[in-house]
Amino acid sequence: MWYYVQGVLALAMINVISVVGLAVFTGFTGLFSLGHAAFIAIGAYTAAISTYFYEVNFYVALLLGGLMAGLVSLIIGYPTLKAKLRSDYFAIATLGFGEAVRVILENLDITQGARGLPGIKVYSTFPVVLIVTLIVIYVARNFVFSRYGRMAIAVREDFTAAEMMGINLFKVRLRSLFFSAVCAGVGGGLFAHYISFIQPSMFTGVQSTMLTAAVVAGGMGSITGPIAAALIFAAIPEVLRVANMWRLVAYGFILVAIMVLRPQGIFGYKELSWKTFSGLVRKTSRAKGGAA
Amino acid sequence: MTVLEIRNLTKRFGGIVACSDLSFQVVQGEIMGVIGPNGAGKTTVFNLITGVYGPTSGQIIFRGQEIGGKRPDTIVETGIARTFQNIRLFKNLSVLENVIIALDQKHVEYSLPRALLRTPAVSRSEEKLRKLALDYLGIVGLEDKAYQRADSLPYGLQRKLEISRALALEPTLLLLDEPAAGMNPEESLELAGLIREIKNRFSLTILLIEHHMDVVMELCNRIVVMNFGEKLAEGTPEEIQENPLVLKAYLGEGYKRA
Amino acid sequence: MLLQTLVTGLAIGGIYALMAVGYSLVFSILNFSNFAYGAIIMLGSYIGYFSLVKFGVPFPVALVLTMAGASLLSFFNERIAYSSLRKRRAPSLYFMISAMGTSIFLENMVYATIGSSFMAYPEIFKQQSIRILGSSIGLLDLFAIIFSFVSIYVLHYFINNSRTGIAIRAASYDSMITQINGVNLSRLIGLVFVLAGALAGISGIFLGMKYMAYPTMGWITNKAYIAAVIGGLGSLPGAVVGGIILGILESLVSVYIASTFRDVFSFSLLIILLLFMPAGLFGKYLEEKV
Amino acid sequence: GQKAPQTIKIGHAVALTGGSSMWGQAEKNALDMEIAKINEKGGVLGKKIELVAYDTKADQTEAVNVTKRMIGDKVVAIIGPGQSGVAIAMTSVTEPAGIPFLATTATNPKVTVDEKSGKVRKTAFRTCFIDPFQGKVAAQFALKELQAKKAAVLFDIGSDYSQGLKQFFVEAFKKGGGEIVAEEAFRSEELDYRAILGKIKEKQPDVLFIPTMQKEAAMAMKQARDLGMTDVKFLGGDGWASPDLITLGGSATEGAYYVNLASLEDPGIQEWIKAYKEKYKMDPVMPNPVMAVDGLLAVVEAIKRANSTEPAKIIAELEKMKDVPVLTGKLTIDPNTHNPLNKPAVIEKIKDGKFVFHARFVTTD
Amino acid sequence: MLKVENINVFYDQIHALRDVSLQVEPGQIVSMVGANGAGKSTLMMTLAGVLKARSGSIFYNGKPLPTEPHLVLAEGICLVPERRRLYANLTVKENLLMGAYLRKDKKGIQEDMEKMLDLFPIMRQRINQYAGTLSGGEQQMVAIARGLMSRPKILLLDEPSLGLAPLIIEQVFKTILDVKAQGTTIFLAEQNAFKSLEISDYAYVLETGRVILSGPGKELLDNPMVQQAYLGVRH
Ligand SMILES: Nc1ncnc2c1ncn2[C@@H]1O[C@H](COP(=O)(O)OP(=O)(O)OP(=O)(O)O)[C@@H](O)[C@H]1O
Ligand SMILES: Nc1ncnc2c1ncn2[C@@H]1O[C@H](COP(=O)(O)OP(=O)(O)OP(=O)(O)O)[C@@H](O)[C@H]1O
Ligand SMILES: [Mg+2]
Ligand SMILES: [Mg+2]
């Protein structure tokens, strides 16, 4: 049983890495992406190709994957953020971007198209995944609890006022996007070396939306909330196995229920965010305040 | 010394000319009032100065530098800060954080890689910021509200927070857009005192839009009166109060007080 | 060849347009992307199928049943998944996630009850096609295009000129104040969802006739979202134009460039368009005055 | 001294939800029925067989999870999965654990043979033929029986199955002297092919090969006929094997041929089909259930021969398997590829709105 | 006409109104004076049905007041909210039409619309402009006009003079008197305490959520405590 639980956990943690990245972007700048699966894919393919064809060291490959995903995020982020696309427009643009990436992966030679890359070495053992996840969470937390996170929040809250505080909207948003893409890329690299076989069809828009769902259900502007949500979302389908074919019905139902009953997220609106911020805010009243 | 010079400034929104061939100058250390009927274009002038809009034509020269059409964040860097007619705080953040954000540009002493690894320098810098922010809150008397959510403050205190946040940007020119709106006469006078105090303490130059005439007359060295986007009059408070054009367009013939 | 390609594109675009309009309608009042819309269309398609095949009713009756059924679903969708969020004035992202949950729920509900097999509609407009200038267009497609134009025009007029229409737009900006103005918000929003549901029903039955009914058919609405964005969210004429542009572009790329890269082209177009017109062709950004 | 388990657990990795659940459910039904039969006769090695089935949703990550779970449950072998991609992903778990699986309809060669090293995967087996064979069958059938000279292909670029089968068909067709006049692709889930079909029409192919799943194939045939492609013959692979193909495609599918692993009309399995229909009140959705039963029978036979339920021994026996009677005939496994040898292909034809057994087809090199 | 008995209103834990009781008689102008955060707007919103009182009751002509905003309006009670709250995405004209949402008399609506444009002539030039782009004061005018369009029996005015030029303030107060003359009851919250007390028949002083003083407007105007705290008069 532990073998199986470990497996589920490892995949859940790999997911957590991407979710944490997305939480930094969506939760803190207020923009949401429906194309993050593309960054995971890019990370996965870059890392896998590095170890598979070029026998690059696994950890170097992970970094390469993250970096590549980050670079690609600039391709979509630079023009769209420069043009100041807003919420749904930005989301649809990223949705389109995600699909486009998948088409390209399906057509490239090096990725072997839809047939995918089988036989990737399994390096992502449980301890490796655990350690990488903890590192990513730590770094993300630091990011968020620094001026960079604070500026992002300001932009999310009121971008006009933020600009008037001397904040460069474009830089702040792009930086967060880049960070989240790197996380997704690292997650993708781990994933490829866990599952040992990747295909473009594994990185769909549905996956992107599930990532966003975890961030929102966990609580915008929180890191721990989305982590919890990602873990819970990974656990629900497994726990519901008994329900057989009804399990995904229940899954959808639970998702709606979370939003309806706790629209501020599982743990409430940014339960952790600034409150614990280097001991800054000690007796805040915000802990329980809703987003109303 | 002239700090800000507006030269033939014009701004059109479609058919509406919100600001038309406007020129005036602001001198170092003065409080200049901008008054005029509703829709005269006062806020638009502020928006042009702070880069919210780009001018249709004309120039805005701040300390010898043309700033018309630049991005707001670069304009802030040159030393201009403002408050908003419709309050724009970061509502979900605490009062303190609102001020810290203003401090983030000039007072932070760490780079992104350090932030990611959270070196001791980061914590030190953050602690310094917190202290500094509390100082700024102290100026407007909000330090005991530092940890409340900004939007739970009553209207009047929100205005004060906006002022304190603007001060934290360390401007040399401060633009205040109807700071006394929604205050009763007593509170307005108190606010006027505060404005004078910060002006002296930080040696600011202030541009003030206000409809509360007591405040304007009390504070301003000079006043520009706008009407339909144009300059209707300019002068000392005494001159303005006597000006028949101003009385007719803005104050009302019955205006007698002070 | 070119003409035929254009006509084919127009036919696909007509369907996109029809779906985009219902989606845009909901957007225009609640300001969020109702990702459950695809699932409502899908269920509409099933209702149409069962009416026609299992109950054997004539087509017009089936159409009405479908519209009614989808309206009802759409209405309950709002009541269950959105109304409490609305009352708490949750940000639009929360609505979207709730919508996603709804769509997962509905889709898998179909899998669990009806199963994964595909339902083919009887051939009502018996593959008739008419020839215009040497290119052929299916009667069904033609009907869909005309139908979308008419329903969209009516809707557009309604939203812009009627008392209720103004109230819908007002509520999209500030629902609290609309209530102060005497609007029964629950009823108004219910009405919008009923309307959108009726459109979903029509789309569903057309999609079903053109292709088939199956659990994941809601994905086609992705294209509708894109069409709506091209046209400008919340703009009904925009949704139509967006749908048709997308349909034609896809056909042209398929034929003259490469069908596999079709999506890359349409998405690139989308992104490039947004760079120059960040609110789509007809959308407007409400610049909040500072 | 561990207590020996009372039953023999056999895993089943199967898509019980999602788009492939139609076949998955049938697979599970068939296995349940077969195991009941075996247990009634006293089981194997005096123990009853217990089926441990988990849903994979036809998704790789889910499959990896459930495989781990089955291994935790101490299964001795696994039946399934039905999808090549899923099977390949599963090998990352079964290989180190040493638990064999017998894929049902995963026809991609890479399932059992590691592409890079060219070595056979120790734990991966299957009971179906492979795509190169299927592609060759389709190509030679088109050339010989349909007398086709020009073929066009419409495939799904987002599907590994479709991409692979297309490639093998094209190779074999060219090798046999035919000409490929068009290779056009669409992306998964898309349903309107009129634009590309128009392009194909201009090339006037004799045969249109559509190596996709039934939904896409049905739509393509329908739209092709709509566009006035009246003479072209349609040809497909085992992805077509669902009655939905005919309901969806309607009259357009009339006269189309496709290659299948097994046929409902295969005389050898009529009795079994009758039993299935009696028990479940419907036809088994071909070909997955028979392939799964083949796998089960092979495992049972291996256990018997090894006189042990140790997975390593089962693997050894599977590798040696020769002419073992299973549902679809006799099973021989090639130890170098773990593929069944001489598994015949069935050509089915759509006639009067029904799948009709057309012929067994043997390829020539 | 309107009777408030011991209501308590909360924002989460913040106790914004404490046992507030007051009464509004038909045909009168009743006003509220109070510092920032005293709870004036909270009371207005509660009367309009936007906020719910946790305890206490509100009676309108002897019957309990409905608690749904649209039903309150249907009873003839209309709130002009603080800080304007216009529909930024609608034109000025459409905003006015929304004010008349429950009215069915097309002609009457048209006439009233003309009246409003005469009242605030600058609105006439802006009639097809999006309300969101109006200047602050212009918006305030539209907000007042929108409230009047419903022809309320009781008009709740929350800081109608906010951000208005002195000349226009005069006009607004004149309008308030006109509206009163036509028989509409007015409940007014104003920071401009001088003017509002001057025209009020009766007034209440609110401090941190409690009524601490009440009396006829003129009387309060002469009250030293009121003068000092709200009128800026120094003795
Ligand atoms: N973004 C915009 N689009 C269209 N018109 C605008 C825009 N911004 C301002 N205006 C118009 O320009 C004119 C001047 O507006 P502005 O806000 O500058 O007035 P103001 O002098 O600040 O008035 P108030 O004292 O009422 O705040 C107004 O008539 C307004 O309608
Ligand atoms: N949305 C809210 N959430 C939490 N507290 C609030 C909220 N709105 C108002 N309050 C609090 O309720 C109290 C009463 O506020 P209210 O707005 O009613 O005062 P007011 O008398 O209208 O003040 P002003 O003159 O500034 O408009 C204040 O302490 C305020 O901080
Ligand atoms: Mg202004
Ligand atoms: Mg108030």
UniProtKB/TrEMBL annotation, chain A:
Gene Ontology CC, one term: plasma membrane
An MF annotation (GO) of this entry: branched-chain amino acid transmembrane transporter activity
Organism domain of life: Bacteria
Transmembrane segments: 6-25, 32-52, 58-77, 125-144, 177-198, 210-236, 248-267
UniProt entry keywords in alphabetical sequence: Cell membrane, Membrane, Transmembrane, Transmembrane helix
Main location: membrane
Localization terms from the record: Cell membrane
InterPro entries documented for this protein: ABC_transp_permease, LivM-like
Membrane topology: Multi-pass membrane protein
Pfam families hit by this protein: BPD_transp_2 (PF02653)
PANTHER family: HIGH-AFFINITY BRANCHED-CHAIN AMINO ACID TRANSPORT PROTEIN BRAE (PTHR30482:SF10), HIGH-AFFINITY BRANCHED-CHAIN AMINO ACID TRANSPORT SYSTEM PERMEASE (PTHR30482)
Protein name: Branched-chain amino acid ABC transporter permease
Biological source species: Thermanaerosceptrum fracticalcis
Source lineage: Bacteria, Bacillati, Bacillota, Clostridia, Eubacteriales
TrEMBL record, chain B:
Keyword terms of this UniProt record: ATP-binding, Nucleotide-binding, Transport
Cross-referenced Gene3D superfamilies: P-loop containing nucleotide triphosphate hydrolases (3.40.50.300)
Gene Ontology MF annotations: ATP binding; ATP hydrolysis activity; L-isoleucine transmembrane transporter activity; L-phenylalanine transmembrane transporter activity; L-valine transmembrane transporter activity
SUPFAM superfamilies: P-loop containing nucleoside triphosphate hydrolases
Annotated GO biological process: D-alanine transmembrane transport; L-alanine transport; L-isoleucine import across plasma membrane; L-valine import across plasma membrane
PROSITE patterns on file: ABC_TRANSPORTER_2
Example of a GO cellular component annotation carried by this entry: plasma membrane
Positions of the ABC transporter domain: 4-253
Protein name according to UniProt: ATP-binding cassette domain-containing protein
Species this chain originates from: Thermanaerosceptrum fracticalcis
From TrEMBL, chain C:
GO-annotated biological processes: D-alanine transmembrane transport; L-alanine transport; L-isoleucine import across plasma membrane
Annotated membrane topology: Multi-pass membrane protein
CDD domains: TM_PBP1_LivH_like
GO cellular component, as recorded: plasma membrane
Molecular function GO labels: L-isoleucine transmembrane transporter activity; L-leucine transmembrane transporter activity; L-phenylalanine transmembrane transporter activity; L-valine transmembrane transporter activity
Residue spans crossing the bilayer: 6-27, 34-53, 59-81, 93-112, 132-159, 188-212, 224-249, 261-282
Domain of life of the organism encoding this protein: Bacteria
Keyword annotations of the record: Amino-acid transport, Cell inner membrane, Cell membrane, Membrane, Transmembrane, Transmembrane helix, Transport
Annotated InterPro entries: ABC_transp_permease, BCAA_transport_permease
Localization per record: Cell membrane
PANTHER family, alphabetized: BRANCHED-CHAIN AMINO ACID TRANSPORT SYSTEM PERMEASE PROTEIN LIVH, HIGH-AFFINITY BRANCHED-CHAIN AMINO ACID TRANSPORT SYSTEM PERMEASE PROTEIN LIVH
Similarity-based family: Belongs to the binding-protein-dependent transport system permease family. LivHM subfamily.
Protein name, as recorded: Branched-chain amino acid ABC transporter permease
Automatic annotation (TrEMBL), chain E:
One Pfam family linked to the record: ABC_tran
Keywords: Amino-acid transport, ATP-binding, Nucleotide-binding, Transport
Molecular function GO labels: ATP binding; ATP hydrolysis activity; branched-chain amino acid transmembrane transporter activity
InterPro entries tied to this protein: AAA+_ATPase, ABC_transporter-like_ATP-bd, ABC_transporter-like_CS, BCAA_Transport_ATP-bd_LivF, P-loop_NTPase
GO biological process: L-amino acid transport
Residues annotated as domain ABC transporter: 2-233
Family statement drawn from the similarity comment of this UniProt entry: Belongs to the ABC transporter superfamily.
Name assigned to this protein: ATP-binding cassette domain-containing protein
